[in-house]
Amino acid sequence: MEPEHEATAHAPDIGDTSQVTPAEGRPRTISARALVVLVLVAVVVLGVDQGAKALVVANLPLNEYVPVLGDLLQFFYVTNSGAAFSIGNAYTWIFSILAAAVVVFIVWFARRIRSIGWAMVFGLLLGGVLGNLVDRLFREPGFGVGHVVDFIKIPILPAIFNLADTAICAAMVVFLILTIRGVGLDGRRAARVDAAEKTD
Asked: Structure pTM?
């Protein structure tokens, strides 16, 4: 009969959902809560972005400044066929392909996420990318080469942007915070993981 202390050492911790399979290097199970947060954040970002763009197109004049908060915030409705700062205007279809690839990657990668913080990062990123991708797919002048609607102008910033761009920037900020704090995709901090491994 195997000694009791050895059997305990080899027994799996059922409550520890952050275990990783040695062979595959990924979580054993998908975190439903993190997945729900990711999807909800993405849907909200996409809905708010597209709703705001619809209002802008219907109510704001093209290429004219509309003051909102004096010199702090203005609306300036423009269409952008390129990337940030109107870079690559002649290659809209390339940006459409890249955006679609990012969406596919996030959907594939979502099963690895077990942290609510990281779920928010990828939710914001997914919603932002989808917001601009929808423009490129369904707005004039045609499928895959549509122009993105930009309308937010802050004089101290060099670019005109939209809410999808804001969500992508917010995702980067949260990404940096989680990275600096050492929070992994499973929600655990690197220091705690190292301490647990040394204890084992």
From this structure: 0.78
